[in-house]
């Protein structure tokens, strides 16, 4: 893959002080990314719904360093999260900046002040790295656009933003555009790539437009095992090869399903993906369990409800105990009632977040 295209060669230092703000979404994978090689290359292709209400808003103030100021090889930034200085988030961002400096040489010519906030409550167990990294990537691309002496197309800006975001967190590559994004080279998906996400390139059936996702907050605590550690445990995992093949097969299948509107097959595939992801955790060495008793209560209640009513509601999981309840827009009223009556009692403080599929990053 040609990553040279992301090294800018026509930058002018014309901006001394500027600022950009972007709102970027979280996403929920339908076919999961679990297992990678350096540098953030996925072992299989994945696809996600881009979300709408669960997002990060990030502003970066850029000020060019004057000659007497700090070392011009250093990347200098301050980080504020929800108005407060956040030293403990800095190492992850610093590592991200180091990884992308080759592609963003302007990182060393400015000092940066980053202000970030999430729409979802802190430590809700919702992964904030996807929306967090994609928001930073979009701010950097706005700067790059303002510095570039050649016109950058929107297509290039989104592609490079996804490329950069991936180097911060793999799933962040899927948090730039919407409503469905594929990341990872796959023969069934035209234009797909291991180094950036692309919008699902085929016409999506009506039933999968405006899909809803209610995120049931079963456990708001810090995860015992981070995604990074989980990905690493796919090395020497006894079922790794089968899992990567399964995911790639599922991606080919879901591509057909999304086009032909076969919702029963969608349910089957999406739930199987969620449980396969957690099966990898159960069979890692060391093994671990991220689901909680209430995760299983919710799954069983969804299965009962579907059997009893013929509803098309289904679930998926990310690397945690929370349950994403997915349903078509026309079931919005009945499923919300079902959640209020039968599922919210399994959530911490009865708390869940209603979300819908969204279109991606927005400049504010
Ligand atoms: C289970 O993107 O958080 O949510 O690349 O190490 O930052 P890093 O991992 P991350 O992994 C996400 C894993 C997942 C599945 C998915 O989103 O595809």
Key features of this structure:
single chain, 364 residues, alpha+beta, Ribosomal Protein S5, domain 2, eight-stranded mixed β-sheet, binds ligand DP6
3D structure, described in words:
This protein is of the alpha+beta class. It has two domains: 16-203, Ribosomal Protein S5, domain 2; 208-356, 2-Layer Sandwich (Alpha-Beta Plaits). The chain is built from eight helices and 14 strands. The protein has helices spanning 90-100, 129-147, 154-168, 227-232, 240-260, 263-282, 293-309, 332-343; strands spanning 17-31, 36-37, 41-42, 46-64, 76-81, 84-85, 110-118, 180-183, 197-199, 212-216, 314-317, 323-327, 352-356, 362-363. The strands form three sheets. Strands 1, 4, 5, 6, 7, 8, 9 and 14 form an eight-stranded mixed β-sheet that branches. A four-stranded antiparallel β-sheet has the order 11-12-10-13. β11 (314-317) and β12 form a beta hairpin. α2 (129-147) packs across α3. The radius of gyration is 21 Å and the shape is globular. The two termini are 32 Å apart. The mean pLDDT is 94.
**Residue share in helix:** 25-40%
Query: Which architecture name of the largest domain does CATH use?
Result: 2-Layer Sandwich
Q: Between the first and last Cα atoms, what is the distance in angstroms?
A: 32 Å
Mean pLDDT comes to 94
Radius of gyration: 21 Å
Low-pLDDT windows of residues:
none
The biggest beta sheet, please? 8 strands, mixed
> What sequence of helices (H) and strands (E) makes up the elements?
EEEEEEHEHHEEEHHHHEEHEE
The count of β-strands is: 14
Number of domains: 2
Beta fraction = 15-25%
């Amino acid at each position: 893959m040609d990553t040279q295209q992301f090294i800018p060669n026509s930058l002018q230092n014309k901006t001394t002080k500027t600022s950009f703000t972007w709102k970027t979404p979280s996403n929920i994978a339908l076919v999961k990314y679990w297992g990678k090689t350096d540098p953030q290359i996925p072992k299989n292709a994945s696809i996600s719904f881009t979300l709408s209400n669960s997002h990060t808003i990030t502003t970066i103030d850029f000020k060019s360093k004057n000659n007497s100021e700090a070392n011009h090889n250093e990347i200098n930034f301050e980080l504020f999260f929800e108005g407060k200085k956040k030293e403990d988030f800095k190492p992850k961002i610093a590592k991200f900046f180091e990884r992308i400096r080759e592609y963003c040489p302007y990182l060393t010519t400015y000092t940066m002040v980053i202000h970030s906030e999430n729409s979802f409550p802190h430590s809700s167990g919702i992964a904030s790295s996807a929306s967090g990294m994609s928001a930073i990537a979009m701010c950097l691309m706005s700067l790059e656009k303002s510095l570039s002496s050649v016109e950058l197309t929107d297509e290039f800006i989104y592609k490079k933003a996804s490329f950069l975001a991936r180097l911060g967190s793999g799933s962040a590559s899927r948090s730039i555009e919407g409503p469905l994004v594929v990341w990872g080279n796959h023969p069934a998906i035209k234009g797909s790539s291991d180094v950036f996400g692309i919008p699902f390139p085929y016409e999506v059936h009506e039933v999968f437009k405006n899909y809803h996702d209610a995120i049931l907050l079963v456990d708001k605590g810090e995860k015992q095992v981070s995604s990074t550690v989980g990905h690493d445990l796919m090395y020497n995992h006894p079922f790794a090869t089968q899992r990567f093949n399964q995911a790639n097969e599922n991606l080919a299948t879901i591509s057909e399903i999304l086009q032909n509107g076969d919702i029963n097959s969608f349910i089957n595939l999406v739930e199987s993906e969620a449980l396969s992801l957690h099966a990898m955790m159960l069979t890692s060495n060391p093994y671990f369990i991220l689901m909680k008793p209430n995760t299983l209560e919710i799954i069983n209640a969804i299965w009962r409800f579907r059997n009893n009513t013929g509803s098309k509601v289904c679930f998926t999981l990310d690397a945690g105990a929370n349950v994403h309840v997915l349903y078509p827009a026309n079931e919005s009223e009945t499923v919300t009632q079902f959640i209020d009556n039968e599922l919210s009692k399994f959530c911490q403080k009865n708390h869940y977040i209603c979300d819908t599929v969204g279109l991606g990053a927005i400049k504010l």
